[in-house]
Amino acid sequence: MNTPIEGSPLADPTPVANLHLPALALTPSVDDRIPMRRLVRVELRKAMDTRAGRWLIGAISGGTMIVMALMVLIGVLDGQAFDLTDFTQVASFFPMSLLLPVLGVMSVTGEWSQRTAMSTFTLVPRRGRIVVAKLATGVILACGATAMALASGFAALAVFHLFGGAANWTLSAQAIVAFTLLQIIGVLTGFAFGMLILNTPAAIVAFFGYLFILPTVFMVASNFWDWAESARPWIDFNHAQVPLQSGGLSGVDWVQFTITALIWFAAPVALGARRVLRAEIK
Amino acid sequence: MSLSVEAVLSPPQTADMISVESITKSYGDLTAVNDVSFECAAGEVTGFLGPNGAGKSVTMRIMAGLTVADAGRVTFKGRSYHDIPNPGREIGIMLDASAQHVGRTGREILTIGAMTMGVPSSRVDEMLAAVGLTQSEAKRRLGTYSLGMLQRLGIAHALLGDPEMLILDEPANGLDPAGIRWMRGLLRGYAERGGTVLLSSHLLNEVELIADKMILIGNGRIVASGDRASLLGIAGGGGTLARADEPSALRAVLDQAGLAYRDDGPDLHIDATPVEVGRLAAQQQVVLIELRPLQGGLEDLFLAITAPDAREHADTMQTTTAHDNGHDGAES
Hints:
The complex is a heterodimer. By secondary structure, chain A is mainly α. Chain A is built from 10 helices and 2 strands, in the order H-H-E-H-H-H-E-H-H-H-H-H.
């Protein structure tokens, strides 16, 4: 009764008397807790095995190529001097910093809109472990994207050099760390918004509102009121990230970065995780 | 944890594998599940019966840790669901076969499940074959699946980890008659090898043929439970249907014995057990061509105890199509 079925499909799609249920010759014990490494691998696969996931990753790669090509073209035609940082910075800004957070949003909202949360949390009832695995997946994707930005920046600079552009090959380690950190913050903030809102379009809109509208509000407010201008560095996360983009954080920059990160990053992650852990899955 | 040969040879164990203890869950004023308790034993198929909205799905979601009960607890071999290190390897759960990503292929869905549980990917092919999904069907996106295929994939997913317990919410939903028969055989065989099965349904006839034990739920409360015979005892028996070669001869015999009966075409519905009728007919040398207990007893009981709780009138329970109930999980 336990003989395994041959790999070939059954001739009859409705095998009425088919009782062949091959039992596993199980070596891995059922008492083993699912290791976190395996959960991360599963989450990485889930981020890329749907059309939406593949399109997003394709759009990030394709968009980066187009932006790089444009930059080379402008640089050559305009006789500009570019260094590696210029290319990498542009590559990581667009489309990466816009689309990676969407990937972060969808890694959690997809579970709700497609109702896969039901089987995910049935197989891993300790939901906090899934949240951690998804956070880790976001970090891995952000690091991968930064590596891609570096590689494409390097390639673009090589092409630029080939066409006679004035190329400068220096790139500071600090800049690489800063790029990576910004991408990680982006994807994880998207993930946090996703957990808080649990609805794909609404979470994407909220994230872009946070990314584009909020800084404008802060800027306008600080132009009108002095108190807003002095408060802005302590509450505007995007503003606090500017020194990071332009090369380095000084002492007070770090403090402001940390405080704004607590408001706009840590708090949404914590509240969102709380919501996911408590939500009833239907 | 594969089911051993011993499990087949030894008499069914009576140990309770699943124990539901006084669970209660309210949504505002509505008490969806009200002090529900039951046990599921190894080697048995337990049928969880009740109309739509009676609280079956909520109970099952609580069992799987997806909904938190207001009170009570559920244990699997003494442990709560959250304390099971790798639940997919011990308990196969299918609450809603359509709750999967429509853009993933059937194979991909099973692969993700197998990866999570840590079972070899060869298990995916084995389970596809076991539920009768072809390789080309498995390569299609879930969005193109019929309800029956969804259900088969869901059952394959539940069986992936070779679990010793199965919890299936409306597994026969959307299956064609051959598919229902196939599933009945599959679950029967699974229980005979020592597995524990809990399956829900809103249709009595789906369950009574396969379940060793039935739990009837209505309006969030358990209204009756037990095996077929004891439930029929509650129902007061349904009498006997008999058809004689010469109906007039049988009528005469029944009149003589003082047994009440009524005509139903060529059949007689007799207020007695099949044994009594058979003996009488044999003594008086009346040729019977059909003799069986009337099903009405159990069905009447089911309708009677659940009717006040049913959302719609009882007759819709027989005619409601599987598709209408595809989202039973959204009850409550």
